[in-house]
Amino acid sequence: MSNDTDSRMADLEMKFAFQQETIDSLNDIVTKQWALIDRLTRRLDKLQGEMAELEAGRSDNKADPPPPHY
Known about the structure:
Order of helices and strands: H
Structural class: mainly alpha
């Protein structure tokens, strides 16, 4: 019976080690994705601000006639 217990214990230890490696790997992936999402969010905010400035500048020039191709 001791041999069966040892075998089961070794199997559990292998599964635990594999699960720990998987959790660590997933944690690294999530951390990298979070950093990417953060960078993209900041870039999007910057671009939205620039677009708002451009639109505000364009609305000031409504007196300009449309280009000839209209």
